[in-house]
Amino acid sequence: xxxxxxxxxxxxxxxxxxxxxxxxxxxxxxxxxxxxxxxxxxxxxxxxxxxxxxxxxxxxxxxxxxxxxxxxxxxxxxxxxxxxxxxxxxxxxxxxxxxxxxxxxxxxxxxxxxxxxxxxxxxxxxxxxxxxxxxxxxxxxxxxxxxxxx
Length: 150
Prior knowledge:
- This protein is an alpha+beta fold.
- The chain has a single domain, classed as Oxidoreductase, molybdopterin-binding domain (Sulfite Oxidase, Chain A, domain 2, Alpha-Beta Complex).
- The chain starts with a helix and ends with a strand.
- It has helices at 2-20, 51-55, 79-86, 109-114, and strands spanning 37-41, 47-49, 60-65, 71-78, 94-99, 104-108, 119-122, 128-131, 144-149.
- It has 4 helices and 9 strands, in the order αββαββαββαβββ.
- The protein is globular and about 40 Å long.
- A 5-stranded mixed beta sheet has the order 2-1-9-5-6. A 4-stranded antiparallel beta sheet has the order 3-4-7-8.
């Protein structure tokens, strides 16, 4: 009888070890305190990500022309992909792009949804910029830290 309990105990320990070694999915978003970028407002779930988490997402390239008329190519994550993760509520109409300096720009949600090249681009010095080809120059927010859905 003692041997039976001994073997049962070993099986339980081994099963526990196997369960403990199972691969867990990484969290979908970073805690707000560590966030480099977040989406708030009229969404199913407010989300925030570290810079590393955003850089690990699928990226695209987008061309945009600056105020001086120079065209450059930027790499980043489509804004629509970020909005899709958060789940935009059906009555939302506007996005407010917030920069790390407090600058904000209001853009029409429908225009952003129609823009396949609108991205949160990666900055060389770290962080993000809103690159919104075809939208007003005000929508090009440097140091993008938050997208508010209204």
